[in-house]
């Protein structure tokens, strides 16, 4: 199987060099992925336009938002594919498939974000209006006063949120269409469909748990919060792209299993780092409102730990309070440091990254050197993320 | 092609007889469809249970709601398949595929209803709690006072609505998995995927227009409302099952095209009848709150017509009013009759049914007699629907 073979690029200085050497295209993987995403969305834009200006405008706004990401997930897929695939697969039709599946994974991410934003009632993403915020802004500009001109319960905000739900559905369907149609050998196509199914199930269960924890439906124990973290983020952010790369490269199931275990470690570390960034760094760094997690009463692992300490009675009254102020935010932040919650979560991040490192080094034989190299770099870049 | 052949059942008294004669199973199509739906949902229930009691309970409640429908769409598919398929396809693996696709279409309907209910903020469907209402009821029973026990913006209603969004996503994904995996010849599988894609796009555009019209984003002209009606309901309720039956039966594209044109006529007639039922019959008959369409300011074709008459200034002030009463409802109903809106929409329904009838009788050769028979019965049953 291709996944077991040594790749020609293993001796090159960086994975990017290896990918470049192997790729007939003059484009960088990033540009290739951007082109695929644009093509997928543009083809639909032409169709949307046939249904009149309102839907065409919604699709155009959505399409623009969908293309603003850092492409973490699709780049991970393409990098891993280039590292895993046998030389004859790199630069082949199979690589075109990898690019399309990578683009679809970015669209899946966007569709999750859209429904998350509806659920969290967010209007911003990384400091700029998300699709809902953008549709709201456009409609208020048209209406002048921000009021619906006619009867009915709705108005611009209802319109914008409803469109967020519907465009999320359209994007989710698009992802499935790409996976379902990819001209791959039947066995690989079914493995990818299984993987997509597993990923979507876990992401939905994770988001459901996130809502359930924050709304007080489920008891916010540390173990439940950590499991939610794994389900909601780790599966689709790391496990999906890395396993999809393995399937597309024709890796044997043993390789795919080894990669999945490593990916889960990365995923939990990454999400815990996000929680730390949200809680302890400035909004310049994370692009959200300052203290938004504390304001919303979000049940992160940091909070779940603090809950078990004697600091909690001092934090609880202001956590998620209706009249929350930035002063409350600064006070909670200081208490979370003092009670050891910050340190505990940092040590958990270390633990997961160390475990990932160990898995990378001990699964010898199952992973080709180029992929080992790529994964070690990933550990390194995640370690540097700790600001 | 099978779709062009005369079927053995054409001389039998009813389509049901024909189907029974051709089916090796001892079950009625209705029971066969129910069994397929149950199997699809149960397989997922086992998986949901692995993620703990909260999600397991959400899935169990969703599964129960999904199984409460009249099965209009899947029965249409299976009936049409039995009428269209050559004898060797009836009772074959192909018929098993038709049953699974039929079950998936019912799940698609449920997923649309879930997101519609979130958008419309409905807690009831046909007079009983929908999934959101059911989750809310269960949570309030647990909480006692209906208040979230902890901080955060949410509470039982936020939890129930968010679950509605997420379960809708899970169901939409499930539908795609069924279509993507069905072991059919490649060409048929792709035709079905195209049809699913077309259907979902039109349904989303239609729902988006429905929201846009009600929220005052789009001008509520009669033509726009009629187009919304076709997109939102006709495509997935009639075009999808009838065309899917044609594809599964191996009908030539000409037959599929003829069926699609007839289906669109049925679909618009059916939705206009629904609007008439909602507006002019008692809640015993339609299972919704009395006058809910007037209360919500819903932009139906009835209202779009009334808007063009001198009666409108008398209707407008109470239509969708925040303090709407049943007395307002009765008054609006009387005004809609007096201004001719009711009569106009009834004549539109007649027009669409007559056009469907004409298409059925003039597309000779393209439709096998058993299907012609089935479609004529459908016209008849839709004509009887006019209470």
TrEMBL record, chains A, B:
Disordered as annotated region, ranges: 1-28
Short name of any one Pfam family annotated for the protein: polyprenyl_synt
Gene Ontology biological process terms in this record: isoprenoid biosynthetic process
PROSITE patterns, per the entry: POLYPRENYL_SYNTHASE_1
Gene Ontology molecular-function annotations: metal ion binding; prenyltransferase activity
UniProtKB keywords: Magnesium, Metal-binding, Transferase
Reported cofactor(s): Mg(2+)
Protein family (similarity comment): Belongs to the FPP/GGPP synthase family.
Name this polypeptide is given: Polyprenyl synthetase family protein
């Amino acid at each position: 199987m291709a996944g077991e073979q040594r790749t020609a690029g293993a001796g090159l200085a960086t994975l990017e060099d290896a990918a470049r050497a192997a790729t007939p295209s003059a484009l960088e993987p990033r540009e290739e992925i951007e082109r695929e995403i644009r093509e997928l969305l543009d083809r639909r834009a032409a169709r949307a336009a046939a249904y009149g200006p309102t839907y065409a405008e919604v699709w155009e706004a959505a399409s623009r938002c969908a293309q603003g990401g850092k492409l973490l997930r699709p780049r991970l897929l393409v990098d891993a594919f280039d590292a895993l695939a046998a030389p004859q697969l790199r630069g082949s039709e199979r690589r075109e498939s990898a690019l399309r599946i990578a683009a679809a994974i970015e669209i899946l991410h966007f569709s999750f974000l859209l429904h998350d934003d509806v659920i969290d009632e967010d209007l911003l993403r990384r400091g700029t209006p998300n699709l809902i915020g953008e549709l709201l802004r456009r409609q208020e500009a048209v209406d002048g006063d921000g009021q619906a001109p006619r009867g009915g319960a709705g108005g611009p905000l209802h319109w914008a949120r409803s469109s967020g739900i519907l465009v999320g559905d359209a994007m989710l369907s698009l992802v499935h269409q790409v996976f379902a149609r990819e001209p791959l050998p039947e066995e690989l196509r079914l493995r990818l469909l299984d993987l997509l199914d597993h990923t979507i199930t876990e992401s939905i269960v994770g988001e459901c748990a996130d809502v359930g924890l924050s709304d007080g439906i489920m008891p916010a124990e540390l173990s439940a919060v950590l499991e939610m973290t794994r389900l909601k983020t780790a599966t689709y952010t790391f496990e999906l792209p890395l396993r999809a790369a393995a399937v597309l490269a024709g890796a044997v199931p043993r390789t795919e299993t080894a990669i999945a275990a490593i990916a889960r470690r990365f995923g939990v570390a990454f999400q815990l780092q996000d929680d730390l960034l949200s809680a302890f760094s400035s909004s310049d760094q994370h692009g959200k409102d300052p203290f938004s997690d504390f304001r919303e009463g979000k049940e992160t692992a940091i909070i779940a730990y603090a809950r078990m300490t004697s600091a909690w009675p001092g934090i609880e009254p202001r956590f998620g309070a209706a009249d929350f102020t930035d002063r409350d935010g600064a006070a909670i932040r200081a208490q979370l440091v003092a009670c050891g919650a910050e340190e505990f979560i940092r040590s958990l991040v270390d633990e997961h990254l160390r475990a990932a490192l160990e898995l990378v080094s001990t699964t010898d034989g199952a992973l080709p050197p180029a992929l080992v190299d790529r994964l070690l770099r990933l550990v390194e870049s995640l370690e540097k993320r700790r600001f």
